[in-house]
Design a protein that fits this description.
The protein contains two helices and 15 strands. The protein has 233 residues and is mostly beta strands.
């Protein structure tokens, strides 16, 4: 997409998705993926999980955002220098996690954020690197999802009018949003087998649910930010 140019870029029906590929972002706010809000994302407990490979660790680069101007319930996952950082908001108060392990360039890393009744936990490559006792979720968040930049200054959910900052330079792959705080074992299963790993969440098998086209407990996105069926790139 091209932010500030009223051009949302290609949609899910006009691009192809292949195995062995990823989203390539170039560090400009004219290069991002966006997903319209869906009620499936309004979860009290959940997990955001994806892979990233940074080309640089300069400045602040947002990997995943579900935020907007004046939103008291926003979520951002960013690199601040070489530190993986998460921020959730509630009632004007911010709750942050800063990873205790540095991230370098040129290597793939898996990040997972779990949130909800048991608090926030940030995982890097399947290992906890920070926690926060905040027990809020995304139940009051109706902003679009942006991958590769931050929409914290955005005033509209129109995907063609995103006002973005903190663009990411690198690759992002296999973005997933799950409707439950995954366990360590489930997070590691996703790392090993992909977003549709056969782990049960609230009685659902992801693979069975995917085959049925359901989204009761999970919704995963491809590198162009489009909700898709079984498989990933």
């Amino acid at each position: 997409g091209w932010a500030d140019r009223d051009d949302p870029g290609p949609t899910g029906g006009t691009v192809s998705y292949d195995t062995g590929t990823s989203g390539d972002f170039h560090g400009t706010t004219q290069d991002y993926a966006a997903v319209a809000h869906d009620s499936a994302f309004e979860v009290a407990d959940g997990t955001v999980q994806f892979w990233f490979n940074a080309d640089t660790t300069n400045g602040t680069q947002t990997l995943f955002a579900k935020d907007g101007y004046g939103n008291d319930g926003g979520l951002t996952i960013s690199l601040v220098g070489d530190t993986l950082t998460v921020q959730m908001e509630d009632g004007g108060t911010s709750y942050a996690i800063m990873a205790d392990t540095a991230v370098g360039t040129g290597s793939w890393h898996n990040v997972a954020l779990t949130f909800g009744a048991n608090g926030m936990a940030l995982y890097l490559d399947g290992v906890v690197v920070g926690t926060n006792a905040f027990t809020g979720g995304l139940t009051d968040n109706r902003d679009a999802i942006v991958i590769g930049a931050s929409n914290e200054r955005n005033r509209s959910n129109d995907l063609s009018r995103q006002r973005l900052i903190n663009a990411f330079d690198g690759h992002i792959d296999e973005v997933a949003v799950y409707g439950q705080a995954l366990t360590v074992a489930q997070i590691q299963a996703v790392i090993t087998s992909g977003p549709l790993a056969a782990v049960d969440v609230s009685g659902f098998s992801f693979e069975a649910n995917a085959a049925a086209g359901g989204s009761d407990d999970w919704l995963w996105l491809d590198d162009h930010g489009c909700p898709c069926g079984p498989g990933w790139f």
